[in-house]
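Comment thread on ticket #2218

A.B. wrote:
> Attaching the input chain for the structure job we discussed in standup.
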Amino acid sequence: MLTHVSFLKNYNMETLFAEIKEIIRKYAFDKKLVDDAKESSRIIADLKINSARVVDIVLDIEEKYDIEIDDKSINKIITIQDAMNVISQKQG
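C.D. wrote:
> Ran it. Output below, let me know if you need it in another format.
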């Protein structure tokens, strides 16, 4: 049974996942790969995003969520879930 707090947390994570996919989609050659992506999808390997575009994605994330992602955190972003974790940590 979901409590009110866990429901809100799940809703926020679902929203965050959708928003990150929307950002990534702007830079993807194959939009269907992004549309079908899961949290565990690897941004470069699975979604076929090149490393130069990853920088653009990080800049868009920083702007959208008003956070600063340092180089150490950028290097940890392999999957969509990793990006979600970094955003959550920076906002928390």
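A.B. wrote:
> Thanks. Noting for the ticket: The radius of gyration is 13 Å.
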